[in-house]
Amino acid sequence: MDRLLVLRLEAQGCSAEALLNGIPLARVDAARPCSVLPVHEFTVSGENRLELRIWPPALLVGEAPAPLPPLESDGQRSASLQVLLPRMGHAIDPGQSRNLAQLLWAPEAGMALLPPIQLTEAVLLPVNFPRWRWLDAPPLRLDAALQARIHTWLCGLAEALTAGRFEPLLQALRSRALDLATAYGRDPREGLLDLHQQLLARHAQGGLVMAPIPPAELLLRPIADGRLLDCLLSGGDPALRTEPDAEGQVFRLPLRIAVLDGQPQVML
Asked: Is the CB of residue 84 less than 8 Å from the CB of residue 97?
């Protein structure tokens, strides 16, 4: 594979979120003004839906936070979402990459702004991947019973990882591993093997003590038009993550899941 399709999100003077086909992929703000990531597994044949959200609401359990009050543009705020095709092995530079699609937001000084602001566009991307498994996941109705079932499942994964039992997580990741292998031209065993080695090393060093997942803090965010749930904590951190190690580092495991035949499966 000599080309890599990436999404680049950048913002100045505001926070912003990028979505592709209903899947939130990145958030940026003053602390982290730019984010770049490969997006093969999120694309579809035909039209792809790009969304750029300016001042997106915080990811919190319970009632949605109050939006920001109306603002007046100072002419300095801006945000951009680009889908780029750089050549493999080269720097991901917008000026030296093929720009396949973009959304730009740069209000003139004095313009009235009413957060949150959303830009959406349907774009055709030159992709020819097989149909990803997440596209065929059934829509979910998130109720208290499903919330409790997924919480129990996540706690089971966390307990197994802390005990050095990795197979429950690796089994849940198999569908995702197959699609990622297709998306990036890899052996499907490679990604799982790499993760297994990471887990082994962390466990051997005592750095795989999983943090608790308080039921009241679990935020299951519907994404992909309701087909998947993003397993988060209130505030946006992945629900499955370790306690800080001796150096203060936290190992995070983002999970976007479907429920198939009553069982959670990681799709993305």
From this structure: yes
